[in-house]
C-alpha cells in the first residue's frame, strides 16, 4: 500500500523559514525600487508622451509596463507569505488567484517583448512591406487581442490546486498538468528563438549597410539586444529550473524535491527584476521616451547624454 501525504500542507509550508525570510527581503528591495520607478514611467506614458497618439512601439511599451504592474500587485502578498515561512497561501482560492496573476504577468511580458522585437525587425529588415507595417500600426487593437488571448492560456493555472511555489503536481499523469507545462515552455522557448532570429537579422543588416543611416540600425540593434538580454536574465533561468524541478519530482526523493523547490523559488524571486529592467528597454526602443524621461526626472543627466551624443 502506497504511503500518502498531505500535499497541500507539505508544499505550502517550507522547512527552511530563514531562507524564505531572506527571499522576502529580496522581494522587498525589488518592490521598493520598482514601484516608484514604474509609477514615474506610467506618468511619462500618460501625461507626457500620450502613448495612444504615438507610434506602435510606444503602445507596446505601455502594455509591457502594465504587465509589470500585475507583478507589483502580487509582490506584497508573496512577501507576507514568505515571511510566514509559506511558499504561498494555504487558502486554495488565494493561491490560485496569485498563480493566475503571476502566470499572466510572465505571459504578457514575453508577448509584448516579442511584439516589440518583431516591430523593430520589420521596420529595419523589411521596410518596404507596408501591409505588415500598416497592421502593426493598429497597435491598440493588437495589444487588446494579446491580452484577450492570454487569458484562456492562463486559465490552466486555476483548474486545480498546484504545489505551491514550483507549481508542479503530485499527480504525474494529470492532463491538466501536462497542458500547463506545454504552455509554460512554449511561451518561453518559441519567443526566445524569435527574438534571437530578429536580432541576428538586424545585426546582419547593419553589417551589410555600408552607407546610409547606420545610426538607425545601431539603435535597432541596441533595442533588440536589450530585449534579448532582459528575456535571457528573467525567463530562461526560470525555464531551466522548472525542467530540473520536473525531473527531480519524478524521482520521488522528498528531500531533493524540497531543495529543488527552494532553488526554484529563489530563481523566481530573482526573475522578478524584469520590472526593474524593462525601463531600460523603453529607453533603448524609444529615444523620445528616453529624452522625455531624463529631461523630466533627471534633467542634469539628460544634458550629459545629449552632450555625449553630439560629441
From TrEMBL:
Alphabetic keyword roster: G-protein coupled receptor, Membrane, Receptor, Transducer, Transmembrane, Transmembrane helix
One of the record's GO cellular component terms: membrane
Membrane topology: Multi-pass membrane protein
Transmembrane domains' residue ranges: 20-46, 58-79, 99-122, 142-162, 182-203, 224-249
Domain G-protein coupled receptors family 1 profile: 37-282
Keyword match Ligase: no
Family membership: Belongs to the G-protein coupled receptor 1 family.
Protein name: G protein-coupled receptor 31
